[in-house]
Design brief:
Layout lengths: L5 H7 L5 H12 L8 H4 L2 H6 L3 H4 L31 H8 L1 H6 L3 H18 L2 H16 L21 H13 L16 H13 L2 H15 L5 H36 L9 E5 L7 E2 L10 E8 L3 E8 L5 E10 L2 E8 L6 E8 L4 E8 L2
Antiparallel strand pairs: 1-6, 2-3, 3-6, 4-5, 4-7, 7-8
Helix pairs in contact: 2-10, 2-13, 8-9, 8-11, 8-13, 9-13, 12-13
Length: 367
């Protein structure tokens, strides 16, 4: 449990991932967005610039949801923390107001900002939406830094005092040029709290790696935090750190995408049903059925190799209007439904794209 005084707060809890890490996450998250979210993609510079605004709002306020408590969750301070009750009121009733507050409110803050972003998008308040999107990047990235997901956030319980700043600020500052984010794809999130809590638990499991690396670095230098110390730290933690930042950027993009869908700006992606994986397959796109249809139709396809698969609905002029599938699939036979209830009747096309195969077919929607 964290008990803040102003001096401690300003030294060790100011930036998760440091300003460098947050800017990397927000800037690169747009890489994963579908082209239909161009209005967000075009705001890349704004999202990067305002990635640390949430940190500048921290004050000495001690209210439950004041800024300083929104950036972490000391999840392992709770007994049976892997099954932590998701209901905030129940948590407070069980453990008390102060304990819950000082243990952090990150996943609930993430849900709150997601709700605000969705409402802003729905009413077309784009300027507010861009700011909420930048803030959401900060809150979702914070616990991907493992020391924002543990009671032992600064190593005091294991003799690693000061590791928080050494890891998230100094180390990233020294090796930021080695951090790259690779384009991936987004997914729709049905349960934002569960999604956030899941990456918090996964992050918590990485804490020992940081403490062990700190011990190894100090052993090499006799306890001095020299260039050799940080080289040792990066050798042990570089791959993990790059993976966490990659994951943070993908998860942020998925949260943005989910807000767009929930605001009605994009169609909710259909469930992908795997029909079979035991038979030999070839690249194949089946004719949808029924066809013509009203308002739902099913599309089946086969992929012989694991890899990225995109299945899109196109208007008659060839513009993508719905992305039904945009993810990595194992080889097999799949089906996906499209509900065209919010579209006009008429002729549409559907297209499958993989690394080695592209095919387009026509479908007809008759109301």
């Amino acid at each position: 449990m964290r008990y803040f005084v102003v001096v401690i707060f300003s030294v060790q809890a100011l930036f998760a991932w440091g300003s460098v890490g947050h800017k990397i996450v927000n800037k690169n998250a747009v890489k994963h967005l579908p082209s239909s979210m161009q209005q967000f993609i075009a705001q890349q510079s704004f999202l990067e610039l305002h990635s640390t605004d949430a940190d500048t709002r921290k004050t000495g306020d001690t209210a439950m949801f004041s800024e300083q408590y929104r950036h972490y969750l000391d999840v392992d301070e709770y007994p049976d923390f892997k099954n932590l009750n998701r209901n905030f009121s129940t948590l407070v009733n069980t453990f008390g107001w102060s304990r819950v507050k000082f243990n952090g409110t990150n996943p609930w803050a993430t849900v709150e900002v997601m709700d605000s972003l969705t409402a802003q998008l729905k009413r077309g308040d784009w300027n507010s939406a861009y700011q909420s999107a930048a803030d959401l990047g900060h809150y979702s990235a914070d616990p991907h830094q493992p020391l924002h997901a543990t009671e032992n956030y600064d190593g005091k319980l294991t003799g690693n005092t000061g590791i928080h700043s050494r890891y998230e600020t100094t180390l990233l500052g020294k090796f930021q040029a080695q951090i790259t984010v690779t384009k991936d794809s987004v997914k729709y999130i049905n349960d934002v709290y569960g999604f956030a809590f899941d990456y918090i638990l996964k992050s918590n499991a990485l804490c020992d790696s940081i403490f062990n690396a700190d011990n190894a670095g100090k052993a090499v230098t006799g306890g001095s935090y020299t260039t050799q110390y940080y080289d040792t730290l990066w050798k042990r933690l570089g791959n993990m750190t790059k993976a966490q930042i990659q994951l943070a950027s993908i998860n942020l993009a998925s949260l943005w995408y989910t807000a767009w869908v929930n605001a009605g700006l994009l169609s909710k992606p259909a469930n992908i049903n795997k029909i079979s994986s035991s038979d030999p397959f070839s690249f194949k796109l089946q004719q949808n059925y029924p066809n013509p249809f009203n308002p739902k139709t099913t599309i089946q396809f086969e992929v012989p190799n694991s890899g990225m698969v995109k299945l899109s609905i196109l208007s008659v002029d060839g513009k993508e209007i719905v992305s039904l599938v945009n993810t990595s699939l194992e080889k097999g036979s799949y089906s996906v439904d499209w509900n065209a209830d919010h579209f006009s009747s008429g002729i549409y096309f559907y297209r499958i794209e993989t690394k080695d195969f592209t095919q387009t077919k026509k479908l007809v929607y008759l109301k």
